[in-house]
Amino acid sequence: MKNILFPTGFSANSWNALEYAVHFFKNEDCIFYILHIADLKDSNVNSNSFAFATETALPSINKKINLLSMRVEQLLDNKKHHLIVLYEYGNFIDLIRKTVYDKKIELIVMGTKGASGIKTAIVGSNTGDVITKVICNVLVIPEKAPIKKPKKITFATDYNIFYTHPILNTLSEQLRISKANFNVLNVSQANGHLTNAQKKNKEYLQDYLEEIFSCLHNFQSVDNKNVKEAILNFVADNKIEMLTMVAKNLNYFHQLLFDTTIEKLSFHTTIPLFVLHE
């Protein structure tokens, strides 16, 4: 049974993220936890952002929760899927961490409105905080992402990290469920020359993929001093439908996600991003 968490503010983009994930995990045994976190000031707990209030939801919020629950129940037409709705007051990140620990969450799914201008970051502040501050895999679904399983997935890496068992397990699950064509993309900033450590990590990943998914993967490398530009160009040119990265791979990760001058806004609003944690 896979435990999946959906933080929600009842927005359209959070619903789109839920629909995407339900479709992606259509044939998997899942418990979907929907979590709404309200401001602490709306509860009876005062001056303590680390307290976790458990009182009954306010009538207006309770109505939204009930409507959302009914809507989700109609979406979950698979007996393998189960729904649990949670409502909490307090600090957003603290409560996400607490829920991940208490419910043994394996994946957090979040919607994002994408970029609204050239100087807008690729993800919102809550999503960015979850990615960087919560040790759990995160699937980010932009508001305009089509509801379908990806047929082309790119895993962007610089081979500077060792691919641990949790990372490889998640990559395997992606491929098993989607049966997608899996591109391992390296953007070289040193004329294609890898260090000995990078070569060993690449060989380890190659051996693993060759053994498990020999016909579904390929390795590609491009020379470009601008990592962000190279990844975005590859995604656009090859019609990639999901981008996967490891949070620990800071060289790629921060340049792509948190540089506020990204110009190719179409990428922000259509391509799901799967962020892996160890």
UniProtKB/TrEMBL annotation:
Stretches assigned to the UspA domain: 1-142
SUPFAM superfamilies documented for this protein: Adenine nucleotide alpha hydrolases-like (SSF52402)
InterPro entries associated with the record: Universal_stress_UspA, UspA
PANTHER family from the UniProt entry: STRESS RESPONSE PROTEIN NHAX, UNIVERSAL STRESS PROTEIN UP12
Protein family membership: Belongs to the universal stress protein A family.
Name recorded for this polypeptide: Nucleotide-binding universal stress protein, UspA family
Organism: Maribacter arcticus
